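Supplementary notes for students who missed Thursday's class. We covered one full example, reproduced here. Read the sequence, then the structure, then the short commentary at the end.
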Amino acid sequence: MKLSAMEKVGQTVIVVLLSLLCLSVIYPFLYMLAISLNEGADAAKGGVYLWPRSFTLINYEIVLGNEVIRSAYLITIARTIAGTIVGMLVTLVAAYGLSYRGLPLRKPILAYVLITMLFSGGLVPFYIQLYELGLTNTFLVYIIPAAFSAWNMFVMLKFLQGIPEALIESAELDGAGPVRILFQIIVPLSKPMLAALGLFTAVGHWNDWFAGAFYVTDQSLIPVQTFLQQLLNASDLSAVMGSNNNQEALARGSQQNITLMSIKMAVVMVSALPILFVYPFLQKYFVKGVLIGSVKG
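Structure (token representation):
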């Protein structure tokens, strides 16, 4: 189909605008990468925008040699894996149960869940609740409070209601129980939805710094994002100079070439890259996952 002149102009404008939008997103990432790979004192002079002018890996050696960061990485990886699995399982089971229209008190339960999504008790009551339950300053404070998501539950519920009831009825006639139906029929048919929501849940756990900053005081339990938040508020390099490995890295480099800004950029890159590598593997599920409920089959 031949496009008119106005349509060609419109497409050109759209391409240009989208290109500028992509550039505005990619450039800060490239800038931080260049600073993290550049000598700190040299980068402080300015002029480093897209690639390092004085290439060095000393910033990453110092960051990866920090014992607190290594511990924070393990905490972040553990909470992301465990939190995603527990959160998706609990939310899926709740959505699966509420998908049965004959469930007693189904509408009041849905209304109650909706209220919890719209209104919050506040930070102080929530902290008191965590304290009384013995969750503060423990690893479980990252897992249990986030085990159920009202938003994800409603998305799952909408998706499950679109599955033909004939499949479930035929399985029940063959003697399948609710658990078998869930894991042998519902879960295989829900892979796009589970992949999309699972990724969003994992990203939420990976990027969360709030829980570690307010509910945990033990430095060995803080996630990497909380450490990054503490580092961004630091005024000197004392936060990353504690371990012997760091001292060895400093001995191999030149201390005057290391600045707090270059270390911050290295920490940002180290904390951001792992979760970015997950996206390409789940990209095929995005279109199906994010359009859940938008079209009724």
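Commentary. The radius of gyration is 24 Å. Residues 293-297 have pLDDT under 50 and may be disordered. If anything here is unclear, bring it to office hours.
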